[in-house]
Amino acid sequence: MRSRGRRSEVEPLLSRFPKTRPILPERFAEIYARQYKANRSGETMAASLSQRIERWLHRQVAADVRQAPGGPTLELGAGTLNQLPYESLSAPYDVIEPFTELYADSPHRARVRDVYADIAEVPADRRYARITSVAALEHISDLPQVLARAALLLERGGVFRAAIPSEGGLLWTLGWMCTTGLEFRLRHGLDYGVLMRHEHVNTAAEIEALVGALFETVEIRAFGLGRQLSLYRFIGARNPRLDVAAAWVSRFSAGNGAA
Questions:
Q1: Strand 128-134 vs strand 115-116: parallel, antiparallel, or unpaired?
Q2: With a threshold of 0.70, does the pTM exceed it?
Q3: 8-state DSSP, 43
Q4: d(CA 73, CA 88)
Q5: The dihedral of CA 31, 36, 41, 42: what is its sign?
Q6: Is 116:122 a contact under the CB 8 Å cutoff?
Q7: Between 219 and which of 3, 4, 206, 236 could a Cys-Cys bridge form, CB atoms 3.0 to 4.6 Å apart?
């Protein structure tokens, strides 16, 4: 009864997917790629400050391997591979990242076993002890399918570990408006909120709800004064509901790419 109730509760949320990313106006599109990579690489003062604070995200996701190195890991949305310095040197490490230019010049590239542009490319018989994500889930327009495929790729006893911005919360919004948003307006004379709405298509609450529907055991920690007044959140999940995951994959498999 609890399973049926949970599925009916999440159905209105599932109906929002796959989401349509807002189209960038021409002036934003011209500088988008440069701005995106600058943020991920910490090239500006505001981006550098954000990266220092974001160490909390990386450390939360890697806390389990610092205690005891685990098995193979798959990272969703690996970007510039900036999670690698926090990870185990011994276990195989695969990543999903569609933007080759983000990781092509990374000094950590040699530590990656396999790179996929889409989670659907991962062999169906491959299994991971850990599937992780750092500041990526908020970007994924067909998130239910990606999370469901991730759940099916976990080995028995495996864990899903993700860190996300508290998108949709007051503190997070004030944070980017007073740092990256202000710097962007001074540099380009444009509203950074347009880029944020293009990039962050999912809120923290939506992500938490989807993970909660897919996994039996979910742990959430916040960087701030509770989840509602936080900058970031960590989500750890175990014991996937494989029937739910299979149903979501079937439902959304005809949609767009997975990451």
A1: unpaired
A2: yes
A3: -
A4: 10
A5: positive
A6: yes
A7: 236
